Every structure is written in structure tokens, then in C-alpha cells.
């Protein structure tokens, strides 16, 4: 085992670094960090000791802490060279009385031997005996052992900026390979010690619960919560609330839409101290921070600690991770923890997993928004743009596509005034939903209007529409009718093709069906549809609904079982068209606890009593 008193690697041609003149370390002085890469040869340990001594001298660290630091660095570098055989990364940090070192090799697959196993030595027993905190972290491309020495520090200055990459002597030394038998010690934790999760200045052990059993629970919870949102800004807000305060002191999320903007926008900022949110937002305004080093897409990396992010008067470490899905960047996530010299590798891996979930949720929300916009555009083109009103009639309409408007509904309606004063009305339902149903909906309404203007009767119009629908290989149910006004009465002629039968409630409250059932449109080409005619008197109400009303399900029961619709319609006696439509709508929703799974449409046409004023036309 190398001794701390072995010859330095500095020598006459490698003088130790001279501490800056007049430098005095205080509780508010900014942290310092230096790092180097050592070759896997016999001179690596000596070079590491010289590098560490030079850094400690620059930082005015002396006494037992300096000796212990050099000894432990030497032991860890020796173990890395002997047992990993790769280049060794050495990083040393100092802030407010705390010294920290990390030794990493490029052999992550080689597990550290446990006590009693072959290859186990005394290297990490020294670390366990001397270090205040220590641990081992494994990542895809490396394995690292870190430790921290010194007393608990005072808070660092809020405006302090982390300095990295200072040049010190001993960055690389050529030489012969170190024989494996020269230092047989391997690294393993003492039997009674559980490696702590992270070195911490203000928070002695902030990540233990997350890097052990808490991490899978946290990620599972995050997946469930993020997946339920369809707005990308809400996803960003939830990401901050998941991180703060149980995982970080602050969090910021930028969202990037390269198709609409060249610059990302700061979507959400969250801070454990709500009074500091606006201050932090001002500090982070503009483009997100840049990673301290080059990383792969979606990989977490240290970033600059913003001045407004500190909790109280302290500073700390922050991590940046781009939100990447399928090679496309949709945003950037940055979190910070006060009082840390650095965030450990295992926590960085957890942040990467969380960022992937946030990125997927953002992309899903964007796709939903795009789909909803398409649906709204389709809906505007498939339905009448004018207000639903027939002069001389009290008219009401309920039209509610299922699924929060994710796609244009398969239900449609229409009201058309003909040149001679008659009116045509339609309430239809395309079997199925989504874009295929929207195509049939977009066909049916224009064809009905065109044939009506050409003078075709109600049955003739449906005969021709049936042939058009059949060519689309879809089915369509529809109630289609004509209204003619005479002396306060309304003559109605209609056809019901595969649709829930329309109902009429007279002034006395009695309810009857108004048409005979006929075949769905699109089922057979050679069909001759027939119409039924009747007269609506003052106080009579005509009700047409789609199967989203009649087939509303609660367990095994349907809304229209036992003439349920007719019964509820009869209970609407004395109500105008709007009141009737609203009472039936509420009854449909109250029938089952779940939201309707099918589109919901109702058309109510009522002839006013003679004493009532007819609506303006």
C-alpha cells in the first residue's frame, strides 16, 4: 500500500502550485474545484498525491485534513489502476472548510469486492475510518468512489459561482504499467457501513431516501401523474412540484418548439421558498443554462448555479438535463440543491430518468393539442355556422362530442331554410368515430343540403344519400325531416333510418313515437325509404336524439330501458325547448357516474302556445 509519505510527483520539473497571495478562506468564499486525468501506470498514484497537495496548498488547507486527503486519494487511485486498468479521473473540491475528492475509473462493470470476497483489500476501510461521508456510484461509462472530509461548513455566498477546470501540475505522467501484484488491495465498504448517497454541505444526507428504495417509487409516481395531463405548461408545472422540495430546492423548465420559435421559453420556475420564485425567474430569463461539459442528448450534466437560486444566503450545485424524445429536444430541465459541492452520479441518473418521463409527457401533450386543434377545425366545417333557430318555433340543441373534443364527433345536425319557406332538419350519427367518421359526416350534410335545394323529397333525398354512404363503406343513422307552417300549425314529414325513434309530446303531456324504424344508410344499395307525416299543434314538442342518449350505460342498464327516455320526456311538460333539453341532458349525465363515452346530441322543436310570443325570425 502506498504511503502518504512517498515521494511527490512534483519534483524539480513539476513545482507545487503557489497559493494566491493574501488568500484567506472564509465561510462565504466561493467553492473551488480542480480535476485531472491520470494514465493507468506506476506513476499515477504519485502524480495524484502531487496534484492533491498542490490544490490543498492553493486553498490553504493544512494539518490532518490535508494529510488524510492525500492518503485517501493515493489509495483510491492505486486501487483504480490495479483493478480497473483504465485511465483514472481525479476531482478535488473545497468550500468553507469541507474538502471533497472523487476518483473514477472507466470500468463500471467491475463491481467493488465485498468484505470476505477474493480481491478485497483495506483501501476503502481507510476511507470509511477517516472520511466524514463517502460512497460509491456506478454509471454506464464509469465507476466512482468519493469522500468528504472536514467540519460542517458555513453557508456560502449566494452570488458565488462554481469554478471548474483550474490547471494544476501533474495532469499526466508517462511511465510503465503498474503490476497487479504491487497493490493487491481492492475497494469495499466496511461491513457495518452503508455508503451515504451524496456529499452535502448544508444538507448532510439529502438524497439517501431517493437513491435507495425511494427512487423507484418516485419515478413510478412521476409517470402516473405526468401521463394524465394534456397541456404542456401543466406538465412543466407538475415537474417542478415533483422535484421541489423533496428532491431539490428549486427547479426550472424551458420548453422548445423549433417549428414555431428559435428560442426556448421559460415555462415554469419553482422554488422551495415561494417568495424567491420571481427573483429566480428574473435570473433565469432568456435561454437556459449551458452544461459545464459536452454530454449526450438526454444526459444530465452540472450547470452554472444562478445567483437568484440560493436558499437563504447559501449557494450550491445545479444539474441540467435536456428533455429529449426520439432524438428531438422538446425542452430543458434544471434543478438545484443548496449547500452541495456537487450532485452525485446516482442522483444524476435519477434526474435523467425523470427528465425522460417529463419529455414524453410534453410530447404527448403537444400531440393532444394538435389533435384537438384539428378536431375544432373539422367541427367548424362539419356543422352549421349560424345559430340554430327556426322562426315560429321554440328551438334548442345539445351537441357534445365525447372525449373532450379529441376528434370531431360522429354526430351531426343541420337546419336549412328552403326558398319557399319550408325548413329541412337532420340529426345523424356516423357509426364509429375519428377521422374516418368525420369524412362521412363531411359528406352527409352537404349532400342533404344540395338535394333539398334541388327539390327532392325527404325519402328521395335519403335514397340518394344511401348510395353515397355505401360507397364509403360506412354506416349512417339519421332522422331527416321537413317542416311546413300554416295557421299556427306545423306539418312535419320525416324519415328515421336506423336511428333512435323521434318522440312527440303533446300539450297534455302524452308522449308517442313519431316515425317507423327503417334501415341504416349504407347497409344496402337497393333500399326505398318511406316517410311519415303528422302535424304539430301549439304546445307540442318534437324530440330527436342520437344513441349517445338512449344507449347511455350504467352497469347492465341503458338509459332508454323500459321507455326511460319517453318517461323523462313526459316529465318535461310545461318546459320550453331550452328547459326540456337541459333537463334531459342532466338526466343523461346523472344516469351513470362516468362521463359519456359516446357523442351526445339532442334537437328539440316546440310549437309555442297561441298566447306565447313566437320567436323572432
Structure write-up:
The protein is built from 12 helices and 24 strands. The protein has helices at residues 44-58, 64-84, 123-130, 208-227, 232-243, 277-284, 345-382, 435-453, 458-471, 547-550, 564-570, 577-590; strands at 32-38, 88-95, 98-105, 133-138, 143-150, 163-166, 250-255, 265-271, 301-303, 316-325, 328-338, 394-400, 411-417, 423-430, 476-486, 489-497, 503-505, 511-513, 517-518, 532-536, 541-545, 553-554, 557-558, 600-606. The strands form 5 sheets. It has a 6-stranded mixed sheet, covered by helices on one side. The model is unreliable at 1-30 and 151-205 (pLDDT under 50).
> Strand order of the main beta sheet, please?
4-5-3-2-1-6
How many distinct beta strands?
24
Overall average residue pLDDT: 77
Low-pLDDT runs: 1-30, 151-205
What structural class do you assign from the helix and strand content? Answer: alpha+beta
Strand content: 15-25%
Question: What's the quick description here?
Answer:
The protein is an alpha+beta fold. Helices cover 29% and strands 24% of the residues.
